[in-house]
Write a structure and sequence with these properties.
single chain, 5-stranded antiparallel sheet, 378 residues, 22% strand, Aminoglycoside 3'-phosphotransferase, Chain: A, domain 2, 4-stranded mixed sheet, Phosphorylase Kinase, domain 1
Length: 378
C-alpha cells in the first residue's frame, strides 16, 4: 500500500499584492490566499459571506492571522494547466458550444440575482474600491496623473497629454476632442456626487480569471452591493481589452497556470496603422485596427444581449445605455494601468479608446464588439 503524504504544497503565485498557493492537507484540496492588507482581508471575508447567499462560491474553511497579514483557506476547485476558468474557454480559435452554454448560465444567474437584489443606494453604501475610491483624493487618478505630464505617444505624437485639448483627434476618420484636465475633473466630480445609484449584489470584479469553469465566483474583496453599470463596464472592458491584450502583456505572471492565453494575444491586440501630428491643421491622426478574437466577441455579445440590455430595460427604461456606462468605462481605462507606463503605441490606442467612449457617438455594441475593418486611407 502506498501512503500519501499528509501535506503537499504547490507553487506560490503572485496576484497583485496577494499570494496564492495550492495545498493538499490530509487529502483535502485547499487554496491558501495570503493578504497583507488587514482591511482587504476583512472585505474579502465579508464579501465571500455576502456572495455565498446568491452565487456558487468555494467554501471558506478558515482565516488566520499570521505575521504580516492574514491567510484565508478556501476549498480548491478542480483545475489544472489551461483548465478551470472562463479564460480557458476564451483561449481558443473559435467559440465552442461549451462557451455558449457557460455564457447562458452566467448571464441567467446574474440577471436573476441582479433584478432580485437591485435597489437605489446612496453611493456611500456601495462597494467603492474600483470606482469611487480611485477617483477620490489620493486615489489612483491622483497617484497616476496628479501633477504629472507625459507625451501622448513618444516618437509618434510628441504632444504633452495636458495639451491634447488644443488639437483635433482624427481617429479612423472620425473627429474627436479630448481635454485631459477636463476629463479628470469630470470623473472626480461624477464619483463624488451623492445621487443614488442602482446597485445589486455582485462579485464586483467579474474578470475571466475570477470566474471559474464550471461556473463559480472567485475573489471577494469587491463583492457586495455594487453599482450595476460599474459591474457591466468591468466585465465588458476586461473581456474585450484587458484579459486578452493588456494584462497578459503587462502582467504575464498572472497567467503562469494558463499559458495558452499568450498564443491568442495577437488576435486581441489592436494594430496602430498611423499615429502622427499635422501641425498646420493642429490635428492628431490615429488610425488603428481593433482586434477581438471570435470567442471573446461571442462572450461579450452574449453578455450585452442576455444581461446588460434586459437589466437596463427593466431598471432604466428608455435610458441611453451609453450614458450609463460612459463614466465607468473611462475609469477602467484610466484607473487600472497608468497610461504613462505603457508603450507609446498602447498608450495611443487607449487615448483613442477614451476619446471614443467619451464621445456623444459612443455605442457600447460596436465599442466592445468592434468590427475589424481596414483604417481609412485618405
Amino acid at each position: 500500500m502506498t501512503l500519501q503524504p499528509w501535506l503537499r504544497i504547490g507553487s506560490v503565485r503572485r496576484f497583485t499584492r496577494n499570494l496564492l498557493c495550492s495545498v493538499d492537507l490530509l487529502g483535502r484540496p485547499l487554496l491558501l490566499k495570503y493578504t497583507r492588507d488587514p482591511v482587504e482581508a476583512r472585505e474579502e471575508i465579508r464579501g465571500h459571506a455576502c456572495l455565498a447567499r446568491y452565487y456558487r462560491v468555494p467554501a471558506l474553511h478558515a482565516h488566520l492571522r499570521v505575521p504580516g497579514g492574514r491567510i484565508l483557506a478556501y476549498e480548491r476547485l478542480p483545475g489544472c494547466t489551461d483548465q478551470g476558468l472562463l479564460l480557458d474557454l476564451l483561449n481558443t480559435d473559435e467559440p465552442s458550444s461549451e462557451l455558449h452554454a457557460y455564457m447562458n448560465q452566467l448571464t441567467a444567474t446574474y440577471r436573476e440575482t441582479i433584478l432580485a437584489t437591485a435597489r437605489l443606494v446612496d453611493p456611500a453604501h456601495v462597494v467603492r474600491k474600483l470606482y469611487w475610491d480611485r477617483a477620490a483624493s489620493g486615489g489612483r487618478l491622483d497617484m497616476y496623473y496628479a501633477g504629472t505630464d507625459f507625451l501622448a505617444a513618444d516618437g509618434l505624437v510628441d504632444v504633452p497629454i495636458s495639451r491634447l485639448g488644443t488639437y483635433t483627434l482624427s481617429i479612423n476618420g472620425h473627429q474627436y476632442y479630448l481635454d485631459w484636465a477636463a476629463v479628470l475633473r469630470q470623473l472626480r466630480a461624477h464619483f463624488t456626487t451623492s445621487e443614488p445609484v442602482w446597485a445589486a449584489v455582485t462579485q464586483g470584479d467579474p474578470t475571466d480569471v475570477n470566474l471559474a469553469h464550471p461556473l463559480a465566483w472567485l475573489d471577494y474583496d469587491t463583492a457586495g452591493m455594487n453599482s450595476i453599470p460599474g459591474e457591466f463596464a468591468n466585465f465588458l472592458w476586461y473581456a474585450s481589452t484587458l484579459g486578452g491584450w493588456l494584462v497578459p502583456t503587462y502582467n504575464p505572471a498572472a497567467f503562469a497556470d494558463h499559458p495558452a492565453v499568450f498564443a491568442h494575444v495577437p488576435a486581441n491586440t489592436p494594430e496602430v496603422r498611423l499615429g502622427n501630428l499635422e501641425h498646420t491643421t493642429r490635428t492628431i491622426r490615429i488610425d488603428y485596427v481593433p482586434r477581438l478574437s471570435a470567442p471573446r466577441r461571442a462572450a461579450v455579445t452574449a453578455y450585452l444581449n442576455q444581461l446588460v440590455r434586459p437589466v437596463a430595460d427593466r431598471l432604466w427604461p428608455g435610458a441611453d445605455l451609453a450614458n450609463l456606462l460612459r463614466p465607468y468605462v473611462a475609469m477602467r481605462i484610466l484607473g487600472v494601468y497608468n497610461l504613462a507606463d505603457l508603450t507609446p503605441e498602447d498608450r495611443l490606442v487607449l487615448l483613442a479608446r477614451l476619446a471614443e467612449a467619451l464621445s456623444p457617438t459612443f455605442d457600447p455594441t460596436t465599442y466592445f464588439c468592434p468590427l475589424e475593418s481596414p483604417c481609412p486611407t485618405s
